[in-house]
Amino acid sequence: MAGTTGGVTVAIVDDHPVVIEGIQTWLSEEPRISVVHTGESADVAPGIADVLILDLNLHGHLVIGAITTLAAAGQRVIAFSQFTEQRIVLESLEAGACGFVAKNEGRAHLVNAVLAAADDRPYVTPTAAGVLVGDRDASKPQLSAQERSALLWWFQSMSKASVARRMGVSVHTVDVYIRRARVKYAQVGRTAPTKADMLARAIEDGLIAPDEITGYESAAR
């Protein structure tokens, strides 16, 4: 589990103090979780906590774009919102959120989502499940270009260090891309715990063609 002492650190971003106080009360009942930051702005440094609970509507504006930025930098984000329209839930998950929790789903779902995110495990709430079941494309997760590139080169028997050099990013970021792809598959009920499982899923969905999985020349040559 994430956290330097075995516990999970959490940051809360919401523009209503009463909501922040309520979340803090909920989380305080779970000894494995500690809140280390609260605020009203999504402009926070990635890594501020193991898990960031982010209200999607801050000061009258949707901040789904902030999920993309934070997730790309390795921050685990849980989208927390009173808005549960299909578009908003799907866009949040596709942007890289580890999970979506509606504000009316209560303490247990939020705590479970936090603990699952910290362990890089998927957790699908009833709200998210309903949206995914109703989405005709839900069985085929939407991978970002970066996630697809990381998977393609990884599948070509490259080490993650080699993939990182090819992409011009850190090994940690490559891990983030692969982890996000794995979580997206698990969110639609198609778990892929191993590299071979991930490859099979990607080929099944046409995300990667079999002839793309070929040998490669070292970038060092």
Automatic annotation (TrEMBL):
Residues 9-118 form the Response regulatory domain. The modification 4-aspartylphosphate is found at D55. Keywords: DNA-binding, Phosphoprotein, Sigma factor, Transcription, Transcription regulation. Pfam families: Response_reg (PF00072), Sigma70_r4_2 (PF08281). Signal peptide: none annotated. The keyword Transport does not apply. PROSITE patterns: RESPONSE_REGULATORY. InterPro entries: CheY-like_superfamily, NreC/VraR/RcsB-like_REC, RNA_pol_sigma70_r4_t2, Sig_transdc_resp-reg_C-effctor, Sig_transdc_resp-reg_receiver, WalR-like, WH-like_DNA-bd_sf. Belongs to the sigma-70 factor family. ECF subfamily. This is Response regulator.
